[in-house]
Automatic annotation (TrEMBL):
This is ATP-binding cassette domain-containing protein. It comes from Massiliimalia timonensis. The keyword DNA-binding does not apply. It is a peripheral membrane protein. Its main location: membrane.
Length: 265
């Protein structure tokens, strides 16, 4: 479904702050695969997601989505095929518009690539049903402005906005990190349900090493702009958190003590 082939990105090339953020990264995700992405601060995780979303042009390499070469496709055009959530629940929503209006915009944009929307009765019933499925009482808050919702409620709405038209790919950039533990758990439960229901190909960044091992079907670890570990199947199932940390240390020449603190267990 997603094919990232030998991509490279250097920021501020030719300046004293030059940074090689992605170094020959290749990553293939099969349809329905749910991959967690972990790594220390500055490893290049968000940059990889930005590359897939089309935030910048690559220096080298190609990106294919469902067989289509999207390497030179503009970001706003990719957004109809790629749903993305960020740590900040306000990102991607219009806080002064109601839940229903935000959903209608997302729905219209994904269908026609347009910002104009008309709130149809049938769409409204569809949104209500989808929100009721979350079990957060959001179906009763359809006329509430999004800015007035709690972080967890907002992230649930954003999740629905990003998946309402069944994108080809879902990118989750630490989307539960800013929430309190119970809201994070609820949003993660909804995420798992939507991913399963829609058989969505998903890439999720997390700093929680336990979550990285036990959510989804595959775990990838990045360091210094490279993928250094790719775990799936039995190897992943049998892996414990201390073993994964140890493996990380081996790959990084014994830097475990410094890096361990950057992962929350
Ligand atoms: N637009 C940019 N301009 C300059 N440098 C950038 C830009 N985007 C990312 N970088 C640099 O690339 C490196 C990787 O950043 P990135 O945000 O991908 O890391 P990350 O693995 O997501 O880290 P974190 O877990 O802290 O979010 C960092 O050193 C960052 O400063």
């Amino acid at each position: 479904m997603l094919e990232v082939n030998h991509i490279d990105k250097t920021f501020l090339a030719g300046t004293p702050n030059e940074h090689h953020a992605l170094c020959d990264v290749s990553l293939h995700l099969k349809k329905g695969e749910f991959v967690t992405l972990i790594g220390t601060n500055g490893a290049g995780k968000s940059t990889l997601m930005n590359a897939v979303s089309g935030t910048f042009w690559l220096d080298r390499g190609t990106i294919l989505l469902d067989g289509e070469d999207i390497t030179y496709k503009k970001e706003h055009k990719r957004s109809a095929q790629i749903g993305r959530l960020f740590q900040d629940p306000m990102k991607g929503t219009a806080p002064d518009m109601t839940v229903e209006e935000n959903l209608a915009i997302a729905y219209a944009r994904s269908k026609r690539g347009a910002l104009q929307f008309a709130l149809k009765k049938s769409d409204s019933a569809f949104f209500r049903e989808a929100l009721a499925d979350f079990g957060m009482g959001l179906e009763e808050r359809m006329k509430t402005k999004v800015g007035l919702l709690s972080g967890g409620q907002r992230q649930a709405v954003t999740l629905l906005m990003s998946t309402i038209a069944q994108p080809k790919l879902l990118l989750l950039d630490e989307h539960t990190a800013a929430l309190d533990p119970s809201a994070a758990e609820k949003v993660m439960e909804i995420t798992n349900r939507i991913v399963k229901q829609q058989d969505l190909t998903t890439l999720m960044i997390t700093h929680n090493i336990n979550q990285a091992l036990h959510t989804g079907t595959r775990t990838i670890m990045m360091n210094a702009g490279k993928i250094i570990l790719d775990l799936s199947g039995e190897e992943r199932e049998n892996m414990t958190v201390p073993e994964l940390l140890e493996l990380y240390a081996q790959k990084n020449h014994g830097e475990l003590d410094n890096d361990r603190i950057l992962f929350s267990e």
